[in-house]
Design goal:
3-stranded antiparallel β-sheet, globular, about 475 residues, about 50% helix, 5-stranded mixed β-sheet, 20 helices, binds protoporphyrin IX containing FE
């Protein structure tokens, strides 16, 4: 006997739309979902866009959903929406609806080695190059420069993924305006996010926005296809993701990737590879500066490990406290704040359940995992779960956490392929910046405000820097 999943009353036509659209300025778009969890409990059900969405907000239920024998990633409304928006036929790995999708399988098998530890290590010098550009900019502009943290980190992460993935320089630090590709990318992402709150029927009549979307998506795809063509015409020896895709053969089928699939994955890497990491770095600076004891500990670690010399790839595995800072930041502020799981279609169980058999699911249920709640579950992290305490994420504690307690990079087969890339980049940037500058909040009274597209970032966060020693 199962128990009905709690559900806020739904209105005709719009269902529960009004329950989830009440984010205040400065709040994440998922805040209303979190408030519903406070009211209805760790599992509840909504009617959105004409279909049922289940939301899970505690560790016990999430742990079940991470069981890959019973559940798997399903594309969810946001990702399905992105596929529709792109309308290209080829799907990048992130938005692929299923592990059974042959395009996903091929890309996954060809790209896994390209994201392996040795390949990422080889990208260190290019990451260092871009991080030094950021440090030079801040050094040159001096302590009078009110650093727009999120914007500058977005320039950094975008330039880093572009050079490491496809040897392309956006040179974002040398222009005031974002590159047109980035503007198009932001256009597609923010339209994707705003459509989550717009009924499908209404979307059909948004003629001007639909046209802008078509232009932005086409522009992105044209730029990416052009990059593939140029690389084919002017081959290079560089070990980057583009070459891995152009020359790689699927170990299962022996086939190579089509150009449109390569292009779709390049766009995926540019999007998935920069928004999330720039949010991580921005939130990390916010929390460090709001908690000066942690800031000084992190800086002391860099001084002890690196000293005044150049930050090298071998330093990365010695930065234990900074690693804990990054883990704790992503626990509190998972920059990809939710993902969607559903029962495995091949399961023979005709009546899937969750909650140890308590709640019935349907075979095609989509369950949204609300990481902002799950990773702050007091049952796992204690009564101070909402506090920033990197010490709890040092290896000796981190390795003893329940298996799925920290999942900002997703889980299972469809977990983040770019995790080692993001980690090396974030550790390196933290090390270079803390080594060379002292930082303070521009306004010490600033309290965290968040802006959401498909990822979340701090809003209105400004800091000031002063040089400690020469840039290395
Ligand atoms: C998948 C988070 C950095 C590429 C994912 C997922 C999450 C995530 C949660 C799973 C989504 C789902 O289940 O629906 C993050 C975070 C990052 C980060 C928090 C940084 C702090 C990167 C980077 C890249 C990247 C740097 C590429 C260079 C991807 C791709 C997938 C993915 C391609 C899809 C994998 C698949 O479906 O097989 N990421 N990511 N991510 N990420 Fe990341």
């Amino acid at each position: 006997m199962t128990t009905p999943i709690p559900s806020p009353p739904a209105l005709p036509l719009v269902g529960n739309l009004l329950n989830v659209t009440g984010a205040q300025p400065g709040e994440s778009a998922l805040k209303p979902f979190e408030r519903l969890a406070d009211e209805y409990g760790p599992i509840y059900c909504l009617w959105l866009g004409g279909s049922e969405r289940i939301v899970v907000a505690n560790y016990a239920l999430f742990e079940e959903l991470c069981d890959e024998t019973r559940f798997l990633k399903t594309a969810g409304q946001a990702l399905e929406g992105l596929n529709e928006l792109r309308n290209t036929g080829a799907r990048g790995m992130f938005t692929s609806p299923s592990e059974k999708d042959p395009d996903w399988g091929q890309a996954h098998r060809i790209l896994m080695p390209a994201f392996g530890p040795l390949a990422i290590r080889d990208m260190f010098d290019e990451m260092h190059d871009i991080a030094s550009q950021l440090a030079l900019k801040w050094a040159r502009l001096g302590s009078e420069y009110k650093i727009p943290v999120t914007e500058d980190f977005t320039r950094l992460t975008l330039d880093t993924i572009a050079i490491c993935a496809m040897d392309y320089r956006f040179n974002s630090f040398y222009q005031d305006e974002m590159h047109p590709f980035v503007q198009a990318m932001i256009g597609v992402l923010s339209e994707g996010a705003s459509r989550l709150k717009t009924p499908k029927l209404v979307q059909k009549f948004m003629y001007r926005r639909n046209e802008q979307l078509r232009i932005d998506s086409k522009y992105q795809m044209d730029v990416a296809i052009d990059l593939v063509k140029r690389r084919r015409e002017h081959p290079s020896e560089k070990k980057d993701l583009l070459n891995a895709m152009i020359h790689g053969k699927d170990p299962k089928t022996g086939e190579g990737m089509r150009d449109d699939l390569i292009a779709a994955n390049m766009i995926t890497f540019l999007v998935a590879g920069h928004e999330t990491t720039s949010g991580l770095l921005s939130f990390a600076f916010y929390y460090l500066l709001k908690n000066p004891a942690t800031y000084f500990k992190a800086q002391r670690e860099v001084d002890n490990v690196v000293g005044q010399g150049k930050v090298t790839v071998d330093h990365m595995k010695q930065l234990h406290y900074i690693e804990a800072v990054l883990r704790e930041t992503l626990r509190l502020e998972p920059t990809a704040p939710a993902f969607v799981r559903g029962p495995r279609p091949e399961n023979t169980d005709p009546f899937p359940t969750i909650g140890g058999g308590k709640y019935a699911l349907k075979k095609d249920s989509q369950v949204m995992c609300l990481l902002g709640k799950i990773q702050r579950d007091p049952a796992v992290y204690g009564e101070d779960a909402n506090e920033f305490r990197p010490e709890r994420m040092l290896d000796e504690h981190f390795n003893r956490l329940p298996k799925h307690a920290w999942k900002p990079f997703g889980t299972g087969m469809r977990g983040c392929i770019g995790r080692p890339f993001a980690w090396q980049e974030a550790l390196l940037v933290m090390a270079i910046l803390l080594q060379n500058f002292d930082f303070r909040l521009d306004d010490p009274r600033y309290d965290l405000k968040v802006k959401s597209a498909l990822t979340v970032k701090p809003d209105g966060l400004f800091i000031r820097s002063s040089m400690r020693a020469g840039i290395t």
